[in-house]
Amino acid sequence: MLQDSFGRRFYYLRLSVTDICNYRCNYCLPEGIGCGRSLEGEKPLTVDEVATVVRAFASLGTEKVRLTGGEPSLRKDLVPLLEAVRASDRIRRLAITTNGYRLPSQIDDWHRAGLDQINISIDSLDPARFHHITGHDRLDKALSGLERALALGVDAKVNAVLLREYNFSELDNFLAWIRETPVTLRFIELMRTGDNREFFASNHVAGTDIETMLVREGWQQVIRTRDAGPAREYFHPDYAGRIGLITPYSKDFCASCNRLRVSAQGKLHLCLFADQGFDMREMIAAGDSDALAAHIRELIGGKSAGHELHEGFTGATRNLAMLGG
Ligand code: SAM
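Output (C-alpha cells, whole complex):
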C-alpha cells in the first residue's frame, strides 16, 4: 500500500485528461483557455498511457480514480479513457468531474463505459448568475444532464464554489433545492491560486461558518469511507440531498489527505499546491506499470505534511484547470 512518511495512505487518484477548458469561470479562468490551442498540440496522455498509469496506481492500492481537467468531456476519446480505467479490476470507483455542458448527450455513453460517480459544477441555480460566473448560458444543460445521471443510477454530486459577491446570497435557494433533489451539494471554499489573488480577497467565504449553521439546524455528519473525497458530508432527515463542505483552510485539512494527482501531461503532483510536478511521461510511455509503480513509491516520500495556502503560498498552481480541482 502506498503510504507517505506521515502515515497517510493513498486510495484515490485524480487524473487530469486535459488542461484545456471551454468555460471562463471568473475565479479560475476568466480569460478562458482553449482558443487557438488544440488538444493534440498539448499532447495529453493517450488511452494506452492512462491505462499504464492506472495499472501502476492500482498495484499500489488505489481504489478510486477520478478523471478531471480542464474539461474532460473535451476529449473526443473520453469513452475509451473511461474504459481504460474500468479495465483495472482493482479500481472500485470510477468518477468524473465536469462542467456538465455535454452531459445530456453523453452521460448514457459514460454510464455504459462504467462510470459510477459524477461531480457537476453548478455555481448558481439562477441562469443569469450561472452565465455571469462561467461565461456560458448553460445551466439548463448541467441540470438536465444531472437529471439523466440520477435516472441512470449514477451517484451524482454538485460542486458549488462559495463566492461572496456572486452566489453567497443564494444559500437558501441551494438548500431548498436539495430538500427534494437527491444529490450531495458540495460547497467548496474558494482557494487562492497564482492567478486569482484579488478575486480571492473579495470573494473568499469560510465554509466552517456554514457548517456551524448546519449543525445548529440539525444536520448530522456522515461517516467517511477511506476513498472519500475531501468533503465533510452532512445529512438531515427532512432533506433528500446531502451537503458537503470542502474547507481547505480549516485546521488539519491535510491530515486526512488520501489522494494524489497526475497531470494531463503525466506529471505526478503530490499536492494540488505543490511547487512542482514530477515528470513521469517517459516512463509512462514505455508502458511498464511495475517500474512506474516503483518510481511513484519512491516519490511519495517527498509529500509534505500540508499545503501552505494560509501563508499565501500557492505553489506552481496558477489556476485549478491546470491540474483539476
Ligand atoms: N471542468 C470541470 C469542472 O468544471 O468541474 C473540472 C475541472 S474544475 C478545475 C474542478 C473543480 O474545481 C470545479 O468544481 C471548480 O469549480 C473548482 N475550482 C476551480 N478553481 C477553484 C478555486 N480557485 N477554488 C475552489 N475551487 C475551484
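The first strand starts at residue 12 and ends at 18.
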